[in-house]
Amino acid sequence: MLLSRHLQGEDVALLTPEYTETMRRFSFATFYPPTERYDSPEHRLERLHQAMARHRYVILSNPNNPLGLYSDAADLLDACRQHPGTVLIVDEEYIEFQGPGLSLAGADADNLVVLQSTGKTYGITGTRAGIMWTRNAALHRAVQLHLPAWPLSLLDITVATAALIDQDWARSTLARVRRDAEQLEQILTSRFGSAVVPCAIHYRFVYLQDPEAAAESLEAHGIAVRAFDGAVRGRVAGIRVMAPASTDEFDLLRHAVQRLPGRNGAVAGTPYLGKSVLEPAPAGL
């Protein structure tokens, strides 16, 4: 939110698909959607270089939301070296799900910004605790000027601190979640084949022509998923499914998947063609 305020009116590019809120906050940016049938780390890296060659700031999430695709740290740092006049902003909201020690924070790059929060990893999104790391002193100072006097409450600080201290819980829980997600991928792939995006984090994305129908059918059998309308700027059509956390939940998912109607064919991740736009964030937020 603070970055979107500071960069309003700047030359910004955004690799899509992306977080809904990020696309809304940066609706003024130039979007770089996938042009291949399915997006991939290789295609994302290609678009990243295109964007960094043309714009002052480039934003992407890594791992990506909603697809779950991960770009290697070495590739992103190489892009920073090849395009020293462009600032790369990397949202690492899901980096802990990918694996330990993968954050770019602390890297030797003056044109890199890393964003992280405690929300997804620890399930405490409501605390709104997070960091922005960069060696770019001017950008750091500019964003600091937008900080409110009391950005977090004492309760937020207490909860976030307790979560960060308990590293044993984080390691064991994240390892279990990754195993559950691998099982989730097997179940979805048995039904949807190559339309399932393979990744290493806690959810899977499935490219579908009619995501709403699939979501309604799954919900009728007790499975809640996120449906994405490919007609909306910056999105591709499909559903995002979170990993179940118990044997009963996996059984429920298998039952729901088996009862999906039709074939729910996969659809290509196509570029935005102007059907609709995400509304910009209200002024003053």
Automatic annotation (TrEMBL):
Domain Aminotransferase class I/classII large, residue spans: 42-243
Organism classification: Bacteria, Bacillati, Actinomycetota, Actinomycetes, Kitasatosporales
Keyword ATP-binding part of the UniProt annotation: no
PROSITE patterns linked: AA_TRANSFER_CLASS_1
Annotated metabolic or biological route of this protein: Amino-acid biosynthesis; L-histidine biosynthesis; L-histidine from 5-phospho-alpha-D-ribose 1-diphosphate: step 7/9
Source taxon at top rank: Bacteria
Cofactor: pyridoxal 5'-phosphate
EC category name: transferase
Keywords attached to this entry: Amino-acid biosynthesis, Aminotransferase, Histidine biosynthesis, Plasmid, Pyridoxal phosphate, Transferase
Protein name according to UniProt: Aminotransferase
InterPro entries found in the cross-reference section: Aminotransferase_I/II_large (IPR004839), HistidinolP_aminotransfase (IPR050106), NHTrfase_class1_PyrdxlP-BS (IPR004838), PyrdxlP-dep_Trfase (IPR015424), PyrdxlP-dep_Trfase_major (IPR015421), PyrdxlP-dep_Trfase_small (IPR015422)
UniProt KW Transport keyword: no
Catalytic activity: L-histidinol phosphate + 2-oxoglutarate = 3-(imidazol-4-yl)-2-oxopropyl phosphate + L-glutamate
Annotated GO MF terms: histidinol-phosphate transaminase activity; pyridoxal phosphate binding
Pfam families reported for this sequence: Aminotran_1_2
Source species of the chain: Streptomyces alboflavus
EC number: 2.6.1.-
Listed GO biological process terms: L-histidine biosynthetic process
